[in-house]
């Protein structure tokens, strides 16, 4: 079973530490070329900043980072550590620093770049990519909330709901739990909700929502 985690969307966050301004940005990327393009984009966007420290991880590919003028080991590596701890791939992160005139020291720098990367990833959110089974679940309006909760309890997600005389729910279930879920929902609703398999797909689905 293939399963991995990626950013849900682009994310950005800012923090100020002893008058230095840190702007963290995260993107979903599919190649080194795309990651490099994002890094250049950040440099142009904040062209007057002193530092643009970066890192990226490409699934089944390159893992790179740069301190870009900061003391070695105090920027790019701490940022990369954040992404690796979160288990995300196909991700590029840039933390831009506007120097505020006060030296932060090695520990202070590492903490600021770590926080900049983490806040940007939190703003982006994290999605899981895996193989799902797509199910059609017809249910009554009275059964809707229960069916939705049961779907979520089995690690699934509701894709859409078609409202008519009844509700036709299209849901995704992890492939290894779909058969068990169909039997469970049939039993829980005393035979009233009988699901139908529509197909399978490899897709990303939000796993941890973006911070608001």
Q: How many β strands by DSSP?
A: 10
- Quaternary structure state of the chains depicted: single chain
How does the helix and strand content classify structurally? alpha+beta
- How many whole angstroms does the radius of gyration measure? 22 Å
The pLDDT mean sits at 93
CATH-derived topology of the largest domain: Ribosomal Protein S5, domain 2
Largest sheet data = 5 strands, antiparallel
Helix share, percent: 25-40%
The DSSP helix count reads 5
CATH superfamily of the largest domain: Impact, N-terminal domain
Total domain count:
2
Beta-strand percentage range: 35-45%
CATH level 1 class label of the largest domain: Alpha Beta
Task: Give a quick precis of the structure.
By secondary structure, the protein is an alpha+beta fold. The protein is 31% helix and 39% strand.
Structure description:
The protein is of the alpha+beta class and 212 residues long. It has two domains: 3-124, Ribosomal Protein S5, domain 2 (2-Layer Sandwich); 128-207, 2-Layer Sandwich (Alpha-Beta Plaits), CATH 3.30.70. The protein contains five helices and ten strands, in the order βββαββαβαβαββαβ. It has helices spanning 32-45, 76-86, 105-124, 144-153, 178-188; strands at 3-7, 11-17, 20-28, 51-57, 63-66, 91-98, 126-139, 157-163, 167-174, 196-208. The strands form two sheets. Strands 1, 7, 8, 9 and 10 form a five-stranded antiparallel β-sheet that branches. A five-stranded antiparallel β-sheet has the order 2-3-6-4-5, sandwiched between helices. β2 (11-17) and β3 (20-28) form a beta hairpin. α2 packs across α3. It is elongated and about 70 Å long. The model has no long low-confidence stretch (mean pLDDT 93).
């Amino acid at each position: 079973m293939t399963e991995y985690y990626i950013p849900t969307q682009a994310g950005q966050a800012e923090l100020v530490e002893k008058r230095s301004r840190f702007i963290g940005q995260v993107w979903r990327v599919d190649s080194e070329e795309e990651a490099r393009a994002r890094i250049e984009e950040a440099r142009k966007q904040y062209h007057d900043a002193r530092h643009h420290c970066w890192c990226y991880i490409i699934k089944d590919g390159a893992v790179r980072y740069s301190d870009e003028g900061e003391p070695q080991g105090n920027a790019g590596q701490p940022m990369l550590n954040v992404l690796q701890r979160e288990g995300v791939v196909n991700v590029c992160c840039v933390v831009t620093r506007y120097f505020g005139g006060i030296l932060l020291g090695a520990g202070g720098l590492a903490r600021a770049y770590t926080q900049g990367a983490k806040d940007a990833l939190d703003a982006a959110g994290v999605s899981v990519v895996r193989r799902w089974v797509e199910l059609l679940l017809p249910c009554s309006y009275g059964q809707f909330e229960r069916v939705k909760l049961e779907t979520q309890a089995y690690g699934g997600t509701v894709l859409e709901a078609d409202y008519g005389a009844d509700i036709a729910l299209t849901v995704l279930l992890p492939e290894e739990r779909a058969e068990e879920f169909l039997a469970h929902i049939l039993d829980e609703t005393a035979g009233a909700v009988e699901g139908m398999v529509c197909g399978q797909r490899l897709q990303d689905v939000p796993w941890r929502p973006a911070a608001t």
